[in-house]
Design goal:
With about 300 residues, this protein is mostly helical. It contains 12 helices and no strands.
Length: about 300
């Protein structure tokens, strides 16, 4: 893989890890449903601006648009909401670690998905490591009586499950331009999320500069720009290498949560992260295949 592609992969991982820090900043002023609505709304706006500037025709048949609206609800609105809900009770670094279980759930869903990829024993062990990592994170919370935080971990865990289903759902849109796909999906996510935000959250009448900046970064940069870059680099690095940001994002979330928000790092965070990352290595499989070949 070329050096510039490695840099893009690393930047994506760092950026998506930072998104949990921006969630925490926004939750100080607005509710979780508004956080999710703002992110997908600004993300959609950024994608449509890109299509307009590039002169790309984003029109699609109504049936495809409706399918993408449903896809956007599953792939963006629901997981962003689950992260924001969970982060009301857990640190951004913990949410970042939970996010790292996404490939594990994707393995499980793909195994049962029609014409999906069947799980190998190595990937199955990797999934079990991901579950073990979540247990490591949750047990201290239960033992200390922080039941709300333990429940928040489970709520946050719903986001990787949504991602796992959406990754397989996305196969039906292979023929579409990726940026057009994301533009309509984020628009659909916005349409799904706005009524929820209006119903369950108080709509802010004014926001601080910090909150406005956080919305701009998490929407325009970490959603629209990040996914445009993601789909640009995907054919150049392949589907396996494109999963590497998942291994970088948890460390990024822990670092920025500690550095910018003063969140405390514990041994439990390190152990849970290590177990989940080991599971990701098993799911990826390249390291172990290389060792077998050398033997």
């Amino acid at each position: 893989m070329a050096v510039q592609h490695w840099l893009i992969i690393i930047l994506l991982g760092i950026g998506w890890g930072m998104s949990f820090m921006f969630n925490a900043i926004l939750l100080q002023e607005v509710g979780p449903y508004v956080v999710a609505a703002g992110r997908v709304g600004f993300g959609a706006l950024g994608c449509w601006a890109y299509l307009l500037l590039r002169g790309i025709d984003g029109r699609l048949p109504l049936r495809t648009v409706l399918a993408l609206v449903a896809f956007g609800g599953l792939a963006y609105a629901a997981p962003f909401t689950f992260y924001a809900l969970g982060q009301q009770h857990i640190a951004s670094g913990v949410a970042g670690i939970v996010n790292a279980t996404t490939p594990g759930f994707a393995v499980v869903v793909a195994h049962f998905w029609p014409k999906g990829e069947r799980a190998t024993w190595l990937k199955s062990v990797g999934v079990l490591c991901g579950v073990a990592g979540i247990v490591v994170l949750s047990l201290p919370l239960l033992q200390s009586g922080e039941s709300s935080a333990a429940w928040a971990v489970l709520i946050t865990l719903c986001a990787p499950v949504c991602y796992a289903f959406s990754v397989n759902f996305a196969r039906s849109f292979r023929a579409l331009d990726p940026v057009v796909l994301v533009s309509w999906a984020l628009t659909g996510a916005t349409l799904c999320q706005l009524p929820v935000a209006l119903l369950f959250d108080d709509i802010p009448t004014g926001l601080s500069l910090n909150a406005l900046a956080a919305f701009a970064v998490i929407g325009f940069i970490l959603t629209s720009a990040a996914f445009i870059i993601f789909y640009w680099v995907l054919p150049k690095v392949g589907p396996t290498n494109i999963t590497l940001p998942t291994m970088i994002a948890p460390a990024s979330a822990l670092f920025f949560g500690s550095w910018a928000l003063g969140e405390q790092l514990t041994m439990t965070h390190g152990v849970g992260l290590a177990v989940i990352l080991f599971g990701l290595l098993l799911i990826d499989g390249r390291l172990f295949k290389r060792r077998v070949a050398e033997a």
